[in-house]
Amino acid sequence: MSSQLAQLFKTGPQWVLGFMSGTSLDGVDVALVKTDGERIEELGSWITISYTNAQRKVLAEATQDALKWNWEGVRPKSFDKAERLMTLAHAEAAQKLMQFGGGETPVLAGFHGQTVLHSPPLDGQKGKTLQLGDGQLLAKELGIPVVYDFRTADMEAGGHGAPLAPIYHTALLDMEAAKRNQNEFTGVVLNLGGVANFTWQTSDQPPIAFDTGPGNGPIDEWIEKHGKGAFDADAKFALAGKVHEEKIKDWLKHPYFSTKPPKSLDRYDFSAEKLVSDMSFEDGAATLTAFSARTVLQALSSMPKKPEMVVATGGGRHNPLIMQYLRDELGDALIDASSIGWRGDAIEAEAFAFLAARSALELPISFPETTGAPEPITGGRHIATTRKR
Q1: What is the average per-residue pLDDT within 98-107?
Q2: Where does ATP bind (predicted)?
């Protein structure tokens, strides 16, 4: 099958669709990237389609059932409903992109799926991960081959299965360094998602990438629990509260933060329910927001070289308080992805387009320096299709 998909690229770079549905359950990001799996030739159209409240409820139920299940016993029935729902939502999002986009014709799609449970390796035991998503159904709906289940091969080899975006982040940083005509360059791509992570790259060392700590996830959880929306718009609730510094000091003693990378987190390792259930609503929002920023800064301070540029991507960069906390320490080195022509809300989707191309060409998508795998791993399962579009 892989040789068949490799033929898609025999004439050079091609347009590839990439999808991302994050743990915040806000919607589906779809993006087009023209690539040969080694470099980014062109960034194409992209779109975000928000989940309806009913869809979010189904996905949230599956996520909660996954946490209760925790790999033991019968697979929850809610998974099947959620899997079909989110797969069809992805197909609909892609069809809208094709309808209103720039006329690009993709030959392949990279389908991350919806993470409902991620258990990193622990005490010598291999980890497990589960992303809901029916690759066969998506291929049928789109009429093009699909690469999915990107993380399992890495975890079966002993890796963390995350983060996977670093190989794409390094391609973006290489593109920016070339644009600046800089041979020696130290940069960071910071993804402020449900879990925050970054890729640190310099010219004379392998890249370093890991989950830094909680991102938007606990904040969104806290806001939604109190019926105040899906996220803290403009950080208005956090700005009205008081930061409990003594709590943050305690949380930073968690062994995760002293563990050397590679390392990864599940979205619910630092849940709002565990952290701030004894606080007022505003104080909880304020303290969770400060904690997210603090973990990013602590991780950056551990890097071998201070970066010249930290490019903020993901939904968290729209939170002005998180960005202010980061800017207070990083100064002008912190920039929004959009300021250099990147699509900050599309980068995760773009990454899975890039990874799909690499998987089709049997190129590695994870590495010892990023996931802890024993060797570079080519991941992803391949679905071909004979359906005519």
Answers
A1: 92
A2: 22-29
Q: Which residue stretches of the chain are H helix?
A: 2-6, 53-69, 78-100, 135-142, 152-156, 166-180, 217-225, 236-239, 245-251, 255-258, 272-276, 281-301, 320-330, 347-360, 368-371
User: Kind of pairing, strands 334-336 and 309-313?
Assistant: parallel
Nearest-angstrom CA–CA distance, 351 and 204: 24
CB atoms within 10 A of CB 67: 13
Is residue 316 helix, strand or coil?
helix
Mean pLDDT of 137-158: 97
Determine the pLDDT at residue 387. Answer: 56
Which tens digits make up the pLDDT trace of 147-157? 999 999 999 99
Secondary structure (3-state) at 320:
helix
Coil, strand or helix at 31: strand
Task: Select from 317, 311, 19, 20 the least CA-distant residue to 172.
Answer: 311
pLDDT digits (tens, 9 = 90+) for 163-204: 999 999 999 999 998 888 888 889 999 999 999 999 999 988
Ligand-binding annotation for 25, yes or no, is yes
pLDDT for residue 11 is more than 70: yes
Cβ proximity of 155 and 125 under 8 Å: no
Domains of the chain: 2-162+348-383 (3.30.420.40), 166-340 (3.30.420.40)
204 is in an annotated binding site: no
CA dihedral (247, 253, 255, 259) in degrees, to 10, reads 120
Is position 29 annotated in a ligand binding site? Answer: yes
Q: How many whole angstroms separate alpha carbon 178 and alpha carbon 102?
A: 26
> In 302-346, which residue ranges form alpha helices assigned H by DSSP?
320-330
C-alpha to C-alpha distance for 148 and 109, rounded to whole angstroms: 9
Mean pLDDT, the chain, whole residue set = 95
pLDDT value for 386: 54
| pLDDT at res. 23 | 85
Was 259 annotated as part of a binding site? no
Average pLDDT over residues 78-106: 96
Q: Per the annotation, does 127 bind a ligand?
A: no
DSSP code for 122: B
Residue 262, preceding peptide bond in cis (omega within 30° of 0): yes
Whether 28 has a binding-site annotation, put simply, is: yes
**Cα–Cα distance for residue pair 296/215, rounded to 1 Å:** 9
